[in-house]
Design the sequence.
């Protein structure tokens, strides 16, 4: 397991995780624009670790855990910090937090019923991309006082949020089906 940790894509994921405390520090010292740029770097490198894992034939279970962990931590911390500081509109932040909480509860229910993984949906990836852009732009716009960047944040964030919720409902359907299939195979 430890040897699986030290490959190129996992090091990229670990670096992404290591940048999160730097992001928090930038928010604490109220350098929101620079925090937004760093969040953009964390988000932009999201595809790098997965691409490298496939390209270098270094896909590992550790990597499958680290990549989404880095994404979730970065987004959750950015949203909560944005809510606390007022960088993000409260309604936007709360809709993200509520959706993540519901998905988390669904994952726990699935796990308790033997479901360990669902297929990732392409629309979910699109929503995540749009939300990464939106959250990043809200920070940059607030930090550098650039109104047009805040408007871009709304332009990509509102559709991203709508898609995110839509895909969340799809995941609940997927989870119900997976639980039913798991319970059916347990009875056999």
Sequence:
């Amino acid at each position: 397991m430890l040897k699986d940790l030290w490959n190129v894509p996992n090091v990229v994921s670990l670096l992404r995780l290591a940048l999160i405390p730097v992001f928090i520090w930038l928010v604490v010292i109220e350098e929101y624009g620079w925090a937004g740029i760093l969040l953009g770097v964390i988000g932009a490198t999201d595809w790098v670790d997965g691409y490298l894992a496939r390209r270098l034939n270094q896909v590992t279970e550790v990597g499958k855990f680290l990549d989404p962990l880095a994404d979730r931590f970065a987004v959750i911390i950015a949203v909560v910090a944005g809510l606390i500081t007022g960088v993000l509109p409260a309604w936007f932040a709360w809709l993200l937090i509520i959706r993540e909480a519901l998905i988390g509860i669904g994952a726990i229910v699935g796990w308790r019923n033997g479901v360990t993984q669902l297929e990732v949906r392409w629309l979910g990836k699109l929503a995540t991309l749009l939300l990464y852009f939106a959250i990043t732009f809200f920070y940059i716009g607030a930090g550098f006082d650039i109104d047009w960047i805040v408007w871009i944040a709304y332009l990509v964030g509102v559709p991203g949020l709508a898609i995110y919720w839509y895909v969340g409902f799809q995941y609940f359907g997927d989870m119900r089906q997976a639980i039913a299939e798991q319970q059916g195979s347990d009875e056999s």
User: Anything to note?
Assistant: The chain has a mean pLDDT of 89. The two ends are 33 Å apart (CA to CA).
